[in-house]
SDR family oxidoreductase (Chryseobacterium carnipullorum), 301 residues
Amino acid sequence: MSVLSNFTKKKADNFAGKSKVMIAITGANGHLGKATIQFLLQKVAPTDIVAIIRNPETVNEFKEKGVTTKQADYNDFNTLKEVFKGIETVLQISTIGVDIETAKQQEKNVVNAIVENNVKHIVYTSIVQARPNTIFQGTETQYHTEELIKETKIPYTFFRNSMYMEAIPELIGNVFQTNEIRYPSGSGKVSFVSRTDIAEAIANVLTENTHQNQTYEITGNKAYTFGELAKLLSAEMKHIDIADTTFREELIGYQMPVDVVDLLVSMANGIKVGEFSYTSDTLEKLLGRKPLDLNKYVKSL
Ligand SMILES: NC(=O)c1ccc[n+]([C@@H]2O[C@H](COP(=O)([O-])OP(=O)(O)OC[C@H]3O[C@@H](n4cnc5c(N)ncnc54)[C@H](OP(=O)(O)O)[C@@H]3O)[C@@H](O)[C@H]2O)c1
């Protein structure tokens, strides 16, 4: 027996006697998917986890952990309906929704494939305070998917995630050169939340029986304006609340496709009106400890 299969067998033996529930994770090779699998491996045998990936080139890192991989694309219902065979619990990780109609169809394909396979519990990653008619365009897809999942009558848990702390560097760019965050968010606040904490909480929910038909608002304990974020980054840092037309021109100047620019401008406008400001202590309850605080996170940048 190879070192690897020996290791996998030992891990599986550790979980012998525990009731076996097959858990599938879509978007498994993304940041949230990978982190969730890391936490799940502390709770269940690797052989109980199915990582669903689009790109077969990413198979090896899961194989090394003893996790099964299956290949499917959100655009292809025929691949999706095969990968949920024998699965009881699915973590459906939301798609990147630049084109809203495509994104809605991708998520519908996943939900329809889940329905065909007698799945018992869907955990879906949605967005904080998901509701119709928001300024941020991305919310439309995730609210639509929540409604589709509810219609299936399969027990669900919605993780309505606020903005990831880990997305801050991408959102504000290389601000340390200029000491300016140029972002049209006014005095709108964001309840930034650690993606790693979300992954740990999802792993808890996937392995517990008490979360059926729950909608969880997953946020940091406090919301911050971009002016407050600037001060956390450094005493010299300033938030410059540029006009959204200026922001749009700057993004187009980086050769960004217009639909991505529209999405990013809608996100800033959504922040400005408070669409990401909601706070809740649900994450703390799911983790059984305080979530990572923004102040601590920015010190690691
Ligand atoms: N709350 C926030 O601040 C925030 C920020 C960004 C995104 N999100 C949402 O949260 C989700 C998870 O976040 P993350 O950080 O893990 O994102 P990520 O690292 O970009 O991972 C996204 C995952 O979705 C997969 N995917 C995309 N299109 C697919 C398709 N057509 N078929 C199959 N798989 C597909 C990707 O596969 P490939 O590697 O093959 O592309 C990847 O595994 C995102 O997808 C997005 O909906 C939330």
User: Anything to note?
Assistant: The pocket of NAP is lined by residues 27, 29-33, 54-55, 73-75, 93-96, 106, 125, 161, 163-164, 167, 195 (CB under 6 Å). Residues 1-10 have pLDDT under 50 and may be disordered. The chain is about 45% helix and 15% strand.
